[in-house]
Amino acid sequence: MTNPPAAASSGRPYNLTTPGLRKLTRRSEYLFVARGLDERRRNLVVQARRHEPEREACGLGFTATKKVGNAVIRNRSRRRLREAARKLLPQHGLTSVDYVFIARQDTAECPWGALLDDMESALVSLRGRIEAGENPQRTPRNGRQARSKRPKA
User: Fold this and answer.
1) What is the layout of strands, in order, in the sheet containing 44-50?
2) Cα separation, 37 vs 21, whole angstroms
3) Cβ(80)–Cβ(115) under 8 Å?
4) 79: helix, coil or strand?
5) What is residue 54's predicted lDDT score, i.e. its pLDDT?
6) Residue spans of beta strands (DSSP E) within the chain
7) C-beta separation of 46 from 147 below 8 A
8) Cα 78 from Cα 68, distance rounded (Å)
9) How far apart are CA 57 and CA 116, in angstroms?
10) Residues 6, 62, 77, 104: what is their CA dihedral angle, to the nearest 10 degrees?
């Protein structure tokens, strides 16, 4: 397994102080993005949603559920996603768009090049869909369409 260059080996801790990047910190921000567009790949899922009013920065969130593995594997998966996003978002990301990167079971162990390829293709696809003005048409998790309220007679 080829790993990404570790931020710790360069002597500096990883952070999101890069201009144009903002960390998503609240659950409501993650839920906001979850109602947007998504692209699924073998090694990760990328969700994106344009933020109104427009901002100069794009928001970033990273998550890995317990299905991915134990705490060590989940942390490794998130670190790999963070580093890949740091490399690819400057070229393929859009300002005023929030992104959430979701780890899958293969994220921690997949080859570094495959993870970068998956993330790049997902970001390129999302960028095209967002620039085309595609609106997400999400249905509730139970699969039923929301009923419109009838006017009272």
Assistant:
1) 21-23, 58-63, 97-103, 44-50, 37-40
2) 19
3) yes
4) helix
5) 77
6) 21-23, 37-40, 44-50, 58-63, 97-103
7) no
8) 11
9) 22
10) -150
Whether the Cβ atoms of residue 106 and residue 42 lie closer than 8 Å to each other = yes
Cα(115)–Cα(20) distance, integer angstroms: 23
Query: What would the pLDDT profile of 34-90 be if each residue is shown by its tens digit?
Result: 999 999 999 999 999 998 777 788 889 999 999 999 999 999 999 999 999 999 998
Which of 7-11, 22-26, 110-114 reaches the highest mean pLDDT? 110-114
Q: How far apart are CA 113 and CA 121, in angstroms?
A: 12
State both tokens at 96: 């005023």
Q: Are 37 and 129 in contact (CB under 8 A)?
A: yes
Cα dist. 45→8, 110, 121, 122, 143 in Å? 26, 14, 11, 8, 21
- Band (14; pLDDT cuts 50, 70, 90): very low
Name the pTM for this structure. 0.78
Question: What distance in Å separates the CA atoms of residue 106 and residue 117, rounded to the nearest whole number?
Answer: 14
pLDDT at 104 over 80: yes
Q: In the numeric block, which tokens belong to residue 113?
A: 């090049």
pLDDT for the residue numbered 45:
95
